[in-house]
Each structure stands twice: as structure tokens, then as C-alpha cells.
Amino acid sequence: MKYAVGILAMLLATTAMAASTSSTAKSSMKGGKPYFEAKESVTAHATVLSVNPSNRHVKLKTEAGDTVKVTAGPDVKNFAQIKKGDMVSVTYTEKLTIHVEPAGAPGASAEASAATAKPGAKPSASASAKVEYRATITAIDKTKGTATLKGADGSEVEVTPLHPENLDKVKVGDVVVFTYSEAVAASVEKAVASK
Fold first, then answer.
1. pTM (2 d.p.)
2. Quick check: 18 pLDDT over 60?
């Protein structure tokens, strides 16, 4: 995940950039069981003002007109390909889904991946991570409008569904699956020639 560190450093440096954000959230049913999904994505752009190969500093101008200096670590491949006028884009996306499955075992899992530019290409990198947590419904209290969930570690938590009518669509023993993922991608694109 060392590439993710470099990408996240770039992401932090671009927080001063004007960014476009898109968000969605929806509740529905899948297979007769409650389903929820929320997703948010933020994209920022900046123009390369200067490149200093000796200290690997890149000076950027954001869409808002601010300037930011970024130090590209040794994990940024193809640094020599970055030129004045190039466009830097960074996109960060996170997503949460919650769904219910028939009886099964609680548990947790995690996975991560990273990729970088091919030799000779403009610098780019991406990293993603996903965590899944599975908890068993151990009790349903329709009077209170709550369900009790028990994780693989034995801890229990009482939750109140956003839509209490969904308690009629689940039963004790069902497994609630929470999946959270995040991804960040950064790329440098060649400057577009003005006509």
C-alpha cells in the first residue's frame, strides 16, 4: 500500500482545489430484503505551473486560482513525464452498502489493491480498499422499532432502522452485511493545445 500513501498525500494537497462532488443514497429491496446504498465522489483538478526535478516539487494552480506545492515521493513513477501545463486530476470515492442475507455466520474481511502507471506513461496511480462486516440479527423488537445485531467477536449493538417497516422483512438469524469501500485515483494528463 506504499503507493496509496503517495496518492493520499496528493489527495491532501488537492483539498485546496475547487472540487466537484456527487452524492447518491437509496433504499430499496433486493430479494425481498432491505437494501441501502450511499455513494459520494469528489473530483478535483489543477494545472501544473512548474516542475523541479531536483527536489521533485510540482507547483499546481487550482481551479479556484490558488497555488499548491506538492512533493512527489519516490513512489511516483515516471516523474520526468510531468510537464508545465499538464492537468492533474484526483478523484476520491466512498461507498457504503447494507443488505440482508439468509442465516449465516457473522464475520469480517478486508481487501486492498493499488496500481501505478506503466513505464513511459504520464504518472497515474490508484488505490482501493473494501471492508465487509457481517452481523447476525439476534432479536427484533417491533414495539421499540429496533433489531439487535451480534458480530463475530460477540459484541452486540441495538440498531433502529431508518424504515421501521423493514423489521417485518427480516427475521432472527438473518445476517446484515455492511460493505464499505473507498478508492482514490490520481492522474496527470497532457496539456490540451489551445486553438
1. 0.78
2. no
